[in-house]
Amino acid sequence: MKKLGKQISSIILASLVLTFSLSGCQTKSKRVSNHKEQKTLTISTHESVENIVRKNVFEPFEKKHNVKIVLELGNNINRLNKLREKDNKTDIIILTDYFAMQGVEEGLFEKINRKNIPNIENLYDIFKSPLGEDYGPANTIASYGLIYNPNKVNEPITSWGDLWKSELKGKIGLNNITNSGGPFLLLIAADQAGVDIKEDEDKAFEKMKELSKNVLKFHDKASESLNTFSAGETIVTDSYSFETKTIKEKVPEAKRIDPKEGSYAFMDTINIVKGTKNKELAEKFIDWILSEEVQKAQALDELESPINKKVKLNEEQAKGVIYGEEAIKSLKTVDLKYINKSMKRWTERWDKEINPTK
């Protein structure tokens, strides 16, 4: 009996050891499995992305969906060109509207399932489908105006036409034609020449050539423009509304204006890249960036203007952003398809006549 008891005890002990061993293997296997389940979402976005965007947008999404976000940064044209490469691995791309329209026309984006992005319905109508129903919505709006140092000019700057003043010779920094604001400059030059650019492109370029004499440098990157202004090398620069806070931190006396002729609207749009293996996750991210939570957080930090109608800001909170339907409607809009159709011709002519040193 004692021998039998020892045999039973040995069997029970062996069973327990086997059970714990299997349990340990399962736990280890589960850990490995969970590690493998973490996906990577690659997002192509503007180089001006700061830590604040990571705090408000990327990090909360990473935690919520067990995903690692990798960023590809750069200006619109460079990132769009990279998207055209066959081995591109980007999942989502954020582009200014007329660059995004090129992506649509070239078949670079996946068609979205709007049912998976319910927050689209909370946007102001003009932002729901700026590129067509099959493609991504806008995720924010900005205005294109001017910023200047009031301590270094004889009279306040109030108009686009002030850029042509002789006192500003060599003191202006502007976007190059291939940067987001570049095409607006040609439209502004046409207005100052009293013509419609579609009808008299020559006069628009003649007027722009006059302005180029006042320009210290045409910038390929927004960061270059900010640096030359902050260093005092320029005293006037074209400016996007979301840059105001950053500029004023470096030059507190700087003043941003919407010229009396009107500021231009441009939207950032968010699209899913053709061929991604993470389409479902990408749609969740688009819905997240359009949410009331994210849109308000970005607005409170004066980084992006909210386009979700549910976002409510008081007068003080709304000072640094474009807020509300009335403010949005006040901005001038452009013919995106016409600009895209003209860009190759405009760029070639610009490099010969306006910025030949490029």
Tags for this entry?
globular; 358 residues; D-Maltodextrin-Binding Protein, domain 2; disordered N terminus; 13 helices
Question: Briefly, what is this?
Answer:
Helix content is 43%, strand content 16%.
Radius of gyration: 27 Å
The second-level CATH architecture of the largest domain is 3-Layer(aba) Sandwich
Question: Would you identify the CATH H-level superfamily of the largest domain?
Answer: Periplasmic binding protein-like II
Largest sheet geometry: 9 strands, mixed
Count of alpha and pi helical runs: 13
Strand content: 15-25%
- For the termini, the CA-CA separation is 98 Å
Q: In one word, what is the shape? A: globular
CATH fold title of the largest domain: D-Maltodextrin-Binding Protein, domain 2
The pLDDT mean sits at 88
The tally of strands reads 9
Low-confidence stretches: 1-6, 11-23, 27-34
GO cellular component, one term: outer membrane-bounded periplasmic space
Keywords: Signal
InterPro entries: Sperm_putr-bd
Pfam family, one: SBP_bac_6
